[in-house]
Structure prediction request, 371 residues.
Amino acid sequence: MAENSVSKNLETFHIKLTALSPVHVGSGNMIEKQDIYFYPERNEVTVFNMERLFSILADRRLADDYERYVLGGKHKSLREFFYSCRLSPDDVKPAVLYTVSSKGVFDREPLLTAIHQFVRLPDCRPYIPGSALKGALRTVLLNHLIKEGSYSRDEITKQGRYGISAFTADKIENALLNKLNYKDADRGSGSIKSVMRGISVSDSEPIENGNIILAQKFDSTGKVTNNKLNLVRECVRPGTTFRFSVSVDKSVYLEAGIEFDSASLQKYIRENFEYYQNTFLSHFDNGYSTLPENSHNCIYLGGGAGFFSKTFVYKALGFEKGLSFVSEYLTAVFKGKNEKDLIYGISPHMLKCTRYNGKLVQFGLCKVEME
Prediction:
């Protein structure tokens, strides 16, 4: 459990995250479909350093041929292009960065989609930035501090670009988090007063590329039919663990009148996950079946986890008012796709899922343990 430091106000401990479903923390980069080398016999995708690959092609006077291929020439895939140029795997091996399992995602060429890459260190090992976990913990803390239904629509909205009021966290965060009384803080940003200054989260330890898989996005209404989308992400394989070092300056939270340490954080995480299950997941016929057994102290992390897991609008407005607002907002943003959400009784009315080992699961579910 938590290991207290010499200072009575500073608590240091570790958080261990175990991926219970595929988790994607994106780098913002994509591997374009024409640059993916797919091995159907191995269920693998090879990712190249494109500068090194182009240098190899240029040395063999194949740069113009490659340019024609990229611009839509006669070759349907990089594998086919290599074969036509009599390039063997050994010839291009110096340009290989890593390989990823594509089982259950790609089954034949030509490939129809790019791949969204996981965040990596310069040596290409995947990791999770501490900012990603700290952001998730911030949402957990806000959901704990908000008394359900205690805010009006006017208090949590501002004029948005789609012609209706857009959700803003500014007013709630100012009221609940920006409580520190630092000199001259009024002339700076709200983060100077934020109690989130009191928690420091390291980047995770890196993992090996063998723990990365490809996962395709499905939109599920909870019925038998699920919509398969042309979106593929590099994800952490379920069962993979990440460890983070965490430091909490309890004097910051004492000043703000907030209980915050490793024990209370664990309680807030459990409360938040139970609220998610009861308020959102329960509206889907297959909602609970997308969760592994013994899912208790969990958070959703990274891309594809869905709107509900990233915001606290339902908690702030209360369920009925939250449903009305979210439905109206998403209908405007996505041009009518959410206009029946009031009839469905939940908004958004889709679970963001993928398939792993033949089972439909949600993106981003992680078990949290304090060490």
In short: The chain has twelve helices and 17 strands. The first strand starts at residue 3 and ends at 4. Residues 33-113 form one domain.
